[in-house]
């Protein structure tokens, strides 16, 4: 490369930043184009006239190094594109070098002033978020908004549907949605800006516990939808007021004050409360009112709410509860039988808790206690009439007078010891007569008896059921050890399991009889003090074991049917006599080695008889064992006889006798 060409290249490289500066500053054409993009154009032109006349600028540009020449040099040098592609190497512009090159139109300070004036026409960096703008003009479809930048922005009127009264000059909040669209227009958004600011306001209100205004738009499940700063918030039904709301629709369309009580940032949910605003005032009122209360004081209040357990009374800023038991001296099923909503009533203060701001009220205490009207002449043993008002498992409550009740326990309804349900004896609403068993006027308690109106069956029990007398009763209940027999209402006795049968071994009473069955019995023993009867069923007949003693004497032989086989042996039934015997396992073996089986009829011998324990022990094995023993005995006798003969015989007969002995031993 020649020195001249190299020099040109260096000049071009040094001139590159000059080209950029000229493009951004001096050329009027560039200024005009940027002025068109700014807003308003007129303001830019006025500022240009105030600084340096356009004509003077044009003349100075023509006097300066021609832009065309500079551009030609740039094209001959290293590609400008490569220089522009390295913004990291860009340094602060060297105005002194630029002036020495003869290209500067103004001094360094003048260029700085022009640069500041131009940048003032651009939106500030802080305007990257929500900013305030002014409505300059309104068209059929758009609003022209001035935000203090180089150009105006536009917003569709659809974003102002909530504000049909929008007019020129109104201040609105906007968000720069797009610096320039394809036509170079600045696009703004009011909806987005309003949403961002709304959430900022809502969060600020929540954090600072501020009171906000909201418009109740409509009802929804469980509450209301409220517009707060353009955000739809949820107002639960329980947070509308301190008192229960019966008609939600009266709040629709109203603007009310609220407190933001909860924000879910993940789901963008907001919960507000109107109740929270008045609760603080109410708490102060409560403390002030409670501080003036006294027990026994009578106040007027309004029925605020009715529940199954009582009534809430508004005492003028503080609520008290009248429990259902303090509404009336009479028994009631529900408080609405006594009071109704919004009814004004007088109540008496029973108790209150200043710390918990709870007030316990009473209504029935304003009238005389019904027990005061009870006949003073009434005493234990007297009979009274009343109406059954409540029936429980343990008894029934009888209303003697309005507010005066007595209890008949189920055990006092019948002389029977087998307790039943109170419903078996009476029904609600029935008129009954009873005897006073206990009476406590101080505690206002009374117990009554129904069975006392009839004669106690145990009064003459010894005359009706003397010992050894026979009767017929009804089986009422089973236990493992016996059967309870009812002889009459209130008179029961026990038949022990051992007294059910003379002959049969009863494991459980259910094997012998059934509930409700009639059973003949004999009174064995009377205990009038403890009201107990000992009964027996087998005693109705004579003891057959007196007869069995002669029939089943030890050594006697009988045929019987095997009725049961078990691990320890077998049970044998002698049908003719109706008695059972027991065969031990070692006595149940037959001659062939097998055991006797159930259902077989086999011959047995009595090897033991015990009248006291009613036991007959049998054996079948004994028959063939005795025969075998007898046979062995006979064989042994013959052998001894032969041995005796052998001792007396000669030696010649020994062989013959030995052979005979072998035959005898073999049974031949």
Q: Would you write up a description of this structure?
A:
The chain has 668 residues and is α+β, with helices and mostly antiparallel strands. The chain folds into 8 domains: 3-120, no CATH class; 125-195, Beta Barrel (OB fold (Dihydrolipoamide Acetyltransferase, E2P)), CATH 2.40.50; 209-278, Beta Barrel (OB fold (Dihydrolipoamide Acetyltransferase, E2P)); 291-366, OB fold (Dihydrolipoamide Acetyltransferase, E2P) (Beta Barrel), CATH 2.40.50.140; 370-453, OB fold (Dihydrolipoamide Acetyltransferase, E2P); 461-540, Beta Barrel (OB fold (Dihydrolipoamide Acetyltransferase, E2P)), CATH 2.40.50; 545-619, OB fold (Dihydrolipoamide Acetyltransferase, E2P) (Beta Barrel); 626-666. The chain contains 14 helices and 30 strands. The strands form 6 sheets. Strands 1-2-3-5-4 form a 5-stranded mixed barrel. Strands 8-7-6-9-10 form a 5-stranded antiparallel β-sheet. A 5-stranded mixed beta barrel has the order 11-12-13-15-14. It is elongated and about 180 Å long. The termini are far apart.
Structural class: alpha+beta
The geometry reads as elongated
Q: Give the strand order, joined by hyphens, for the main sheet.
A: 1-2-3-5-4
State the low-pLDDT regions, or none. 1-90
Tell me the helix content. 25-40%
- How many domains comprise the coordinates? 8
């Amino acid at each position: 490369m020649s020195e001249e060409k190299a020099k040109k290249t260096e000049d071009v490289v040094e001139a590159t930043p000059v080209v950029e500066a000229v493009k951004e500053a001096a050329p009027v054409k560039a200024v005009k184009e940027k002025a068109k993009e700014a807003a308003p154009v007129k303001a830019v032109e006025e500022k240009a006239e105030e600084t340096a006349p356009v004509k003077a600028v044009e003349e100075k540009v023509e006097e300066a190094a021609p832009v065309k020449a500079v551009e030609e040099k740039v094209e001959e040098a290293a590609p400008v594109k490569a220089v522009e592609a390295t913004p990291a190497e860009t340094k602060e512009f060297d105005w002194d070098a630029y002036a020495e090159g003869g290209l500067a139109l103004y001094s360094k300070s003048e260029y700085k002033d022009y640069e500041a004036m131009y940048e003032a026409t651009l939106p500030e960096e802080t305007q990257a978020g929500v900013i305030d703008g002014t409505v300059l003009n309104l068209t059929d479809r758009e609003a022209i908004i001035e935000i203090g930048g180089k150009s105006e922005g536009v917003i569709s009127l659809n974003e102002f549907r909530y504000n049909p009264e929008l007019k020129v000059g109104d201040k609105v909040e906007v968000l720069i949605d797009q610096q320039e669209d394809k036509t170079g227009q600045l696009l703004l958004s009011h909806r987005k800006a309003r949403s961002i600011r709304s959430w900022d306001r809502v969060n600020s209100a929540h954090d600072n516990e501020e009171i906000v205004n909201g418009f109740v738009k409509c009802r929804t499940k469980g509450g209301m939808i409220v517009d707060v700063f353009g955000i739809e918030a949820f107002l639960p039904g329980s947070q509308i007021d301190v008192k229960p709301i019966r008609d939600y629709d009266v709040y629709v369309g109203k603007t009310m004050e609220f407190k933001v009580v909860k924000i879910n940032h993940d789901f963008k949910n907001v919960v507000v409360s109107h109740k929270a605003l008045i609760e603080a005032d109410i708490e102060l009122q409560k403390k002030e009112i409670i501080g003036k209360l006294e027990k026994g004081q009578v106040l007027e209040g309004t029925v605020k709410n009715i529940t199954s357990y009582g009534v809430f009374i508004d005492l003028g800023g503080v609520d008290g509860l009248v429990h259902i038991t303090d509404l009336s001296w009479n028994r009631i099923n529900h408080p609405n039988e006594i009071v109704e909503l919004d009814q004004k009533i007088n109540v008496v203060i029973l108790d209150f808790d200043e710390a918990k701001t709870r007030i316990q009220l009473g209504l029935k205490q304003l009238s005389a206690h019904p027990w005061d009207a009870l006949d003073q002449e009434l005493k234990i043993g007297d009979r009274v009439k009343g109406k059954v008002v409540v029936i429980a498992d343990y008894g029934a409550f009888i209303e003697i007078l309005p507010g005066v009740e007595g209890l008949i326990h189920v055990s006092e309804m019948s002389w029977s010891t087998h307790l039943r349900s109170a419903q078996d004896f009476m029904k609600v609403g029935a008129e009954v007569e009873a005897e006073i068993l206990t009476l406590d006027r101080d505690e206002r308690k009374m117990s009554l008896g129904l069975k006392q109106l009839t004669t106690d069956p145990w009064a003459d029990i010894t005359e009706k059921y003397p010992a050894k007398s026979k009767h017929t009763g009804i089986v009422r209940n089973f236990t493992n050890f016996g059967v309870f027999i009812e002889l009459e209402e209130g008179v029961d006795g026990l038949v022990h399991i051992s007294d059910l049968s003379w002959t049969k071994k009863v494991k459980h009473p259910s094997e012998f009889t059934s509930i409700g069955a009639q059973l003949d019995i004999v009174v064995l023993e009377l205990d009038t003090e403890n009201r107990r009867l000992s009964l027996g069923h087998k005693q109705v007949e004579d003891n057959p074991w007196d007869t069995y003693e002669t029939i089943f004497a030890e050594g006697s032989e009988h045929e019987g049917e095997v009725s049961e086989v078990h691990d320890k042996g077998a049970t044998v039934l002698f049908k003719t006599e109706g008695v059972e015997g027991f065969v031990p396992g070692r006595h149940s073996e037959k001659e062939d080695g097998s055991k006797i089986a159930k259902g077989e009829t086999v011959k047995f011998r009595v090897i033991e008889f015990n009248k006291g324990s009613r036991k007959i022990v049998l054996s079948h094995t004994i028959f063939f064992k005795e025969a075998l023993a007898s046979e062995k005995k006979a064989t042994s006798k013959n052998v001894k006889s032969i041995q005796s003969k052998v001792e007396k015989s000669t030696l010649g007969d020994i062989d013959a006798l030995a052979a005979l002995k072998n035959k005898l031993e073999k049974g031949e």
